[in-house]
Specification:
Mean pLDDT: 94
Structural class: alpha/beta
Radius of gyration: 19 Å
Helix content: 40-55%
Strand order of the largest sheet: 1-9-8-2-5-3-4
Largest sheet: 7 strands, mixed
Number of helices: 11
Order of helices and strands: HHHHHEHEHEHEHEEEHEEH
Number of strands: 9
Amino acid sequence: MFVLRWLSRLPFPVLYAFSDFLFFISYYLIGYRKVLVLKNLRNSFPDKSEVEIKRIQKDFYHNLCDYAVETIKLLSISPEELKRRLVYKNPEIVKQFSDKNQSILLLTSHQFNWEWLLTSGCLYLPLGVDFVYQQQSNKTFNEFLLDGRTRFGAYPIERSNVGREAIKRKEVLRGIAVMADQFPGHFHNKKYWTQFLNQKTAFYLGLGQLASLTQYPAVFFGVKKIKRGYYEAEGFVVSQPPYGKESQQIVEDYIKATEQTIKQQPAGWLWSHNRWKTKSGAD
């Protein structure tokens, strides 16, 4: 953590020079998950040419390396600098609910840079921000992520405690931030299978369960990279209660919003994640 905090104080030009070095190592020398990234892109965009796929792949690795140094920068970046670099275009979309003392679900996807989106939400939005996270096995990495995400007041909720925390904090005006676009895990036997990016895909049942438990309206914020180190976030109401106990309509709404964001900037999504490691009926 000492090294990471020291690195975070370096100016952006130095950090991006380091990102360029990481790109050269990961893309040209190591080839970090290049086979997986190519497979995911080809299956997700069957209508794109191989030239287009390779261009998206290369751009993705640039974005991934920028994400790494930008996330380190969260340990020391000022609120003013973060707001200058990630702009919420329409935070008033949330105000319509906060004015009624109505908590909401804040949905987004693993679109770069989601760490900046989460952290800056505390600076833009007219309510508190709770975020659901997965405990990391590496203690230092877990501490690093939590330190960056909570710098401006966000409240962490470990994934296994979502239900309890939702009830415990029901009187707190907040947005519960959820990213539900990754593989739900082999040990989460109850999965919701649906079509996503031209493939049969498993999703957590947890998002539907959380919506049913809280009966909160859901606002999705999509992130768009404007240029290196600068992003815009735009939100829209994606789902409204009442939610049925067994309904997964909010998951379908979330998928549509996530696909729309990905298609706007295909190189901005986390393609190195092994999203389709299990096929329907195999787990």
